[in-house]
Amino acid sequence: MHRRTLSRSWPLRVGMWAVALAIVAAIAPAEAATPAADFADSGAARVRIEATDDGYHAWADNPQPGPIEVRLRYRQRHNTVASPALPARATVPAGGSTVVAAFRAADPARAVDFDLILDSVPGNPSAQPRDVTYLLPLTKDTPVMVDQGFAGSFSHDDEENRYAIDFAVTVGTAVLAARDGVVMQVIDRYPDAGRSNANRRPDPSSADTLLRTANLVRVLHEDGSMAVYAHLQQGGAVVAPGQRVRTGQHIGWSGNTGFSTAPHLHFAVQVNRGMRLVSLPFRMEGVGETAAN
C-alpha cells in the first residue's frame, strides 16, 4: 500500500565537512619550527603538517572506513608557495593518508605565514555505481507511506536530495539496511527536532547549521555508492563505523532530528562527483511510482 501524506521534511546536506585549519608556519632563514595545527574534529579528514628540508608537507589523514575526497585552500597566506597550487584536491583511501600539497617560502629570507581550510566529501569521485534493486529499509509489517519522492518540489530539488525518498514513520521505527555494505559514518548525538521546525522553511542565516544536525547512518557499497539513512533518533544507531552489514540487518531507529517537520526516514543513494554529493535514481522493492512523484 502506497500513500502520500501532507507532512513535510527538509533537505539533508551533510556531505561536506569544512574545517578551518589555523596553521601558521614560521620559517626563518636560520631555523624552522613545525607549525601547529588547530582544527575541529570533522569526522572526516585530519591534516598533519610535516617539516621537510625546504618547507612543509600537508598530509590528509582519513580515519573513515571508506574513501573521501579532500580540497585544501588558503584562508590567508604570506610569502608562501604551494605545489600543487591551491586549491588542491586529493582522494584519500579508507584509513589512509595522502600528501595534498607541499609548502615553501617564496623568499627564503623571509618568514612564511599561512592559514588553510580543508573541505572533505565522503566517497571516491571515480566510483562506478551498478544498477541494483534495493530492499525496503523497513520491516514487512511497517506501512509504506511516502511523504516525498523523487524530485519532490518541497525539498528534493537539489543534486544531493533529488532522488531521495522520505518515508513517514513514527519515532522508534526499526530501520534496516537496504543493501550490503560497510558502515562509513554514524551520527547519533542530536536531539529530536520536536515541533519547532513545523510549517516553516529554513532561514538562510541558520539553515545550514540546522540541516547538519540530523542523525544518520551512511553505508558504503562495494561499487562506491553510499546509502544514507537520515533523521534517526538520538542514540538510534545500532551499528558502528567499519562494521559490515547485510541486506535486511537492523541498523537503527527512526526519529525526527535535524530540520524535520515530522518524524520520517530520509533514504538516498549518493556518489561523490568532484567534491559534491549527487543522489542517484534507484529501484526499491515495495515502492512503486509513488517514489517518483
Helix content: under 10%
Number of helices: 1
Distance linking N and C termini: 15 Å
Low-confidence stretches: 1-15, 20-42, 198-210, 289-293
Q: Shape from CA axes?
A: elongated
Mean pLDDT: 80
Query: Which sheet architecture does the biggest sheet show?
Result: 11 strands, mixed
Q: Give the tally of β-strands.
A: 24
**C-alpha-based Rg, rounded:** 21 Å
> In what range is the share of β-strand residues?
35-45%
Classify the secondary structure makeup into a structural class.
mainly beta
Order of helices and strands: EEEEEEEEEEEEEEEEEHEEEEEEE
How would the blueprint of this fold be written?
Blueprint: E1 3-4, E2 17-24, E3 27-28, E4 31-32, E5 36-38, E6 46-52, E7 55-61, E8 68-78, E9 80-83, E10 88-92, E11 97-105, E12 113-122, E13 133-134, E14 145-148, E15 164-167, E16 174-176, E17 181-187, H1 207-211, E18 215-220, E19 226-237, E20 244-245, E21 250-254, E22 265-272, E23 277-279, E24 283-284
Parallel strand pairs: 1-14, 13-24
Antiparallel strand pairs: 2-5, 2-12, 3-4, 6-7, 7-11, 8-10, 8-12, 9-11, 14-15, 15-22, 16-21, 17-18, 17-20, 18-19, 19-21, 19-22, 22-23
